[in-house]
Write a structure and sequence with these properties.
Layout lengths: L1 H4 L16 E4 L1 H8 L6 E5 L13 E4 L9 E3 L2 H12 L24 H4 L1 H7 L9 E5 L7 H13 L2 E3 L14 H5 L2 E7 L11 H7 L3 E5 L14 E2 L6 H13 L1 H8 L6 E2 L2 E2 L7 H13 L8 H4 L12
Parallel strand pairs: 1-2, 2-3, 3-4, 5-6, 5-7, 7-8, 8-9
Antiparallel strand pairs: 10-11
Helix pairs in contact: 3-8, 9-10
């Protein structure tokens, strides 16, 4: 919305009987409703580990590394979360600075970031020692992640891991300011709920933003998105014990820890950091321009057109 609103006038509604240029949806929660938008270009978008069904949707934005011409754009959830991070640091007291030519700089800055994030500001500004922080943090609300829960238990058996969410909570309350909480620890356990190639959410970004080292498990191809020298990738190890031994090594060897902490989170080419597949605002805008300028509605077929919308959906990929 932020990108498109810079170039188009946008009107939002949820009425399938009103004319629309685009309709967004995903199988979870809106699979049946999307069928009622028959003469509009449907765009799949999800924050979950789901693969788009191009029989239902004309275009898709997702995590998977698919090549489907101009009908698909890979934009992992972590990239969308950067939008909110950028908005939050458009602040005169933030330790991260927005470029003068950024779209985010067009808005009047706020003045409360440091007040709300004193520990984060101190550690980013080198006003406090990043080595003199707690061991590791953990924030999760979904208990249905057995691998994540098992790793927490294994790591916590070596050194106490502070839990600030509803899962494995050790504080007695849920933290309200995740970034500030994470910044008070050397590591952040940021496992995805499920594993899938390309499925990288905001969790690793939350750790980077808080100037703590991510201990990550999830997408086996995450090193394409982020510099493998900047985080602990549990998928690189044969088992939990090996991964935990490496975390313990970093914890007890200050130089090794600091080397990883100060690595650029992004991969670089010729000294210049870049997002995987050159993802950018321009690439996203070009994707939507192509959609808006193309009159083809790909989902037009008898199965979709004439289906009884009251009939139970048997299966949707």
């Amino acid at each position: 919305y932020f990108i498109l609103s810079q170039h188009y006038k946008i009107t939002l509604h949820q009425n399938p009987n009103e004319p629309s240029d685009l309709v967004f949806g995903s199988p979870i929660g809106s699979a049946r409703k999307i069928l009622s938008y028959q003469n509009t270009k449907r765009i799949f978008y999800t924050g979950e580990n789901e693969v788009p069904n191009f029989n239902l949707f004309d275009y898709a934005i997702g995590f998977d590394e698919l090549d489907f011409g101009d009908r698909y754009l890979r934009m992992p959830l972590y990239y969308a979360s950067l939008h909110y991070k950028a908005e939050s640091v458009n602040d005169t007291t933030a330790p991260y600075k927005i470029k003068d030519n950024s779209l985010y700089a067009l808005k009047k800055p706020s003045h409360h970031f440091k007040e709300n994030h004193p520990h984060l500001c101190a550690v980013v500004n080198d006003e406090s020692d990043p080595l003199k922080r707690g061991f590791a943090s953990f924030v999760a609300s979904n208990p249905n992640a057995p691998i994540r829960n098992a790793f927490y238990d294994a790591l916590n058996a070596i050194e106490p891991v502070t839990g600030g969410g509803s899962v494995k909570n050790t504080l007695g309350y849920n933290v309200k300011n995740k970034s500030e909480f994470l910044s008070q620890y050397k590591f952040n356990l940021c496992f995805e709920n499920t594993q899938g190639y390309g499925y990288v959410t905001e969790k690793i970004i939350d750790a980077y933003f808080s100037h703590t080292i991510p201990i990550y498990w999830g997408s086996p191809s995450v090193a394409k998105d982020f510099n493998p020298k900047s985080f602990v990738n549990v998928c690189d190890f044969k088992n939990f014990d090996e991964a935990i031994d490496y975390v313990r090594y970093l914890h007890t060897h200050p130089n090794a820890y600091l080397d990883m902490l100060y690595e650029n989170p992004l991969n670089t080419l010729d000294g210049k950091a870049y997002f995987y597949q050159n993802l950018s605002f321009k690439k996203i805008l070009d994707f939507f321009k192509t959609i808006l300028e193309n009159d083809t509605i790909y989902h037009n077929n008898p199965f979709i057109f004439y289906r009884d919308l009251n009939e139970p959906l048997v299966s949707i990929d």
